[in-house]
TrEMBL record:
Keywords: Signal. This is Ferritin-like domain-containing protein. CDD domains: Ferritin_like (cd00657). Coiled coil: none annotated. It comes from Sorangium cellulosum (strain So ce56) (Polyangium cellulosum (strain So ce56)). GO terms for molecular function: oxidoreductase activity. Residues 1-26 form the signal peptide.
Amino acid sequence: MRRRNKLVAIDVVGAVALLVPAQALASSVPEGSFNPGLLLSVGSGEYPVGFGTEISGMVFPKGDPGSIGYGGFFQAQTYAGDYARLAFGFQLGNVVGGELGIAGLTRSDLHTSTFALHTGVFASAAVLGTGLRVTIPMTGADHGLPAHGVEVSWVLTLKVPIYSGKIFNSFGRPLRDEQGPITAAAREASGWADIRDPALVAHLSTREREELAALWLEAALAEHASIATFAALALELLALGAPADLLAACQQAAQDETEHARLSFGLASTYAGLPLGPGTLPLPATARLGDAAAVAYLSFTDGCIGETFAAALARRAQRHAADPAVARALARIATDEARHAALAWSIVAWCLALDPARVRATLGAALAEPEIEAPAAPLTDVLGLPIVPAARHGAVPADEQKPLRRRAERTARARLKRMLRAPREARVEGDVIP
Ligand SMILES: [Fe+2]
Ligand SMILES: [Fe+2]
């Protein structure tokens, strides 16, 4: 996300005075995961049960953890303490995949070691994985003859993924100029956030606190920019002669976003250990006053789709948030964003009635686009944050966000098509003034 005033002073850990640009907390990192864990195999061979550890790492070149990734693995197992099996190699896939590598099997008498080809297929979900592994002996270490035969094993893994990549969130309607969304920069500031009970974050490592502070700071800045979005929308509605109920709902939405920003700055400040707030906001010129088609278009893209998505995202984050303060903030945000989406539909319907020909043409053109481009999301790059603790504090991985966004767009398109086909009935459907 573009930001015009970048230098920020943040003492992220409180105890240590650091001067850190906010972007340093969110530097670009590759999308991927590092997965240490335990490994159990049951199969053919002299000793059927092997127990040990596996470490794997995957990167996702498309920048989407839901896409095909590649990486490497290392396994170390012992079989009843009598011999060990070490393997390393290459993995390809995602939820399901395959692996190819080299295995070395030893005995206590190292002279009978065996080198083998390691092949396997795997499937994984959350922390659990399973697979089938075939170890094909190739050569013995010294004598030329393998000491081990072919081993076919069923494998069970328990791994804790440590996620690297983009994570989190925008719960606000973006403030735009011609070049894209705008937010303020963060700074140390009173007036936007209380630092809550430090015990809330005492169990987190410094690294986790830094990254969660960065995450919530991005969300807070997006919410803060939304206040201006609704203020500008109120002016646009006034210029178009909108009724009082639309105007009042728009002003209420600006107040909601103010509260969302306070809640988000509060969480960011608690993780950071010092009060954070927004700096100056580089407001764009309000250029489109009196243009009902432009108001309808942005209400559709950023409100009907964007805020429906924001509501679903906040609800999803709330379900996994174990921290009560985080869960409370997300519940409030989810409820408000759903109401803002309803307001956006009301504005679309009103604009359609106001200037049917132009608004229909603009919205029809929007429907003809294969996909409505999402505003550049203030996703925060996170390196080395275990995904389970992150989710407890409100984080939603990028791969879980995409289906929510797609569903929000699909349902909004269907509803808009119905409105354009039968504007009279759709007016009633869209007339949900909060
Ligand atoms: Fe919001
Ligand atoms: Fe909103």
